[in-house]
Amino acid sequence: MVTLGGDTLRGEVDARGAVRNARLGRFRPTAAAPITDYQPRQLQGYAITGEQLYQSATVLLADSVGPGAALGAAPDTLQRPSFVEVLVRGPLSLLYLRDEQRIDHYYAQPRAQPLCELRQRVVKSQSEGRRYERETNEFRYTLAKLMASCPSVQPRLTALRYQSRELIQVVQAYNACTGESLTVLPAKARKNYLQLGLIAGAQTSQLKIEGSIFRLPLKGTSAVRPVIGLGLTLHTGLSRNITFRLETLYEQQYYDRLAPYTNQIAVTPALSSEKRATLSTLRAPLLVRYIYPRGRFQPMIYAGYSYGLYLRADVEDRVKVARPPLSPLEVVYKGSPEPEQALIGGLGLTTARPDGRNASVELRYEYSNGFNRISTINRFYLLLSYDLTK
Predict the structure, then answer these.
(1) What is d(CA 117, CA 143) in angstroms, rounded to the nearest whole number?
(2) What is the 3-state secondary structure (H, E, C) of 309-355?
(3) I need a surface site. Which of 72, 92, 304, 362 has the fewest CB within 10 A?
């Protein structure tokens, strides 16, 4: 945090989504200290080390005084002090703000001059009973004026799109053209990027087979077995705390104590029966995860859906007498196992290295429809994951 007097306050910043970061800076010097809320009028700006830099500025937005007061107000007619994020700093700086209606605004600022918004509007019209929409590319003309001293950049503006990545690149090119030193600020909070990770852990499960034939149900708990796989995490510009993750897991379940059953054949205490099942599956969980941005180890929760294919489904039914006319396990496993679908929930802890590889530990629960319509499986996981890419 940089105060109006120029003093720098070092500590922890509670950074959330782009909308709140533009209106409020929450700070505490140590983990045990109380949190202080700072408004844009109270600071020159604040930074999150290695990630984002915000500076205080007054911008024109129709939502400046809240939804109620802004009714009927034309866009860009109300002044509001805000924290705008610095994407590129140099002879020409590029800044960004997301307003209360989740509309993205970009600003260009020549050195020691006011901000100039880069605008793109949608104009609606109607002709011969048809409605039309077209985008005005005012931002291209604005940049052309600001970059007039560098003719080599001008051709790039004709096809420039109103996107963070392309705006950053063209401003970088202009600053390099001027021959002056420049600073590029990380804008990963708005970039869509993927991270590949390794997953390993252990799982146990509970199998239940229900029905009326042969005095079902059967129940059993599997031995603890390893799980291995890969995870692909998508970070989006929607929120730095919400990620989407697709995993591929290989696992086995071994049940050696399925509950005994009896049928029409008389069973004496001298007779015994062993019922075992071995399953192996290839699973594809799709998860939505929320990470609470607090501390070096950040808690997370997630939920999702899983689809599984059975690679193996073997059963044994051993008895010390003549085989019963038909084993209930034979009825259950008759034919090929059906694809499995499941709901997932979990929680865990993850490290918080913005530009590095992170590790996490998770507890996961999964409820599935099993391998046919009369079976269900509850799975419990302890998983460790580590990012292979940054």
Answers:
(1) 10
(2) EEEEEEEEEEECCCCCCCCHHHHHHCCCCCCEEEEEEEEEEEECCCC
(3) 72
**What's the confidence (pLDDT) of residue 35?**
87
d(C-alpha 313, C-alpha 333), whole Å? 8
Structure tokens, 370: 């099993």
C-alpha distance across the termini of the chain, in Å = 27
Give the list of residues 6+ apart from residue 6 with CB closer than 8 angstroms, or none: 44
Q: In angstroms, what CA-CA distances link 9 with 47, 55, 328?
A: 10, 15, 71
pLDDT bin (cut points 50, 70, 90) of residue 163 is confident
214 vs 107: CA distance, rounded Å: 73
Q: Mean pLDDT, to the nearest integer, of 321-348?
A: 67
Task: Measure the CA dihedral 80/102/160/54, to 10°.
Answer: 50
Domains and CATH numbers, the chain: 2-189 (no CATH), 193-387 (2.40.160)
Distance CA 325, CA 330 (A): 11
What pLDDT does residue 251 have? Answer: 93
Residues forming beta bridges with residue 118, ordered by sequence position: 106
Indicate the burial class of 312 (C-beta count within 10 angstroms; 0-12, 13-18, 19 or more).
exposed
Q: Please name the amino acid found at residue 262.
A: T
> Would you put residue 12 in left (φ > 0), alpha (ψ -120 to 50) or beta?
beta
Rounded-to-integer distance, Cα 286 and Cα 359, Å: 19
Q: Which phi and psi (to 5°) does residue 156 adopt?
A: -70, -20
Q: pTM, whole model, 2 decimals?
A: 0.55
Six-digit token string for 164: 């963070």
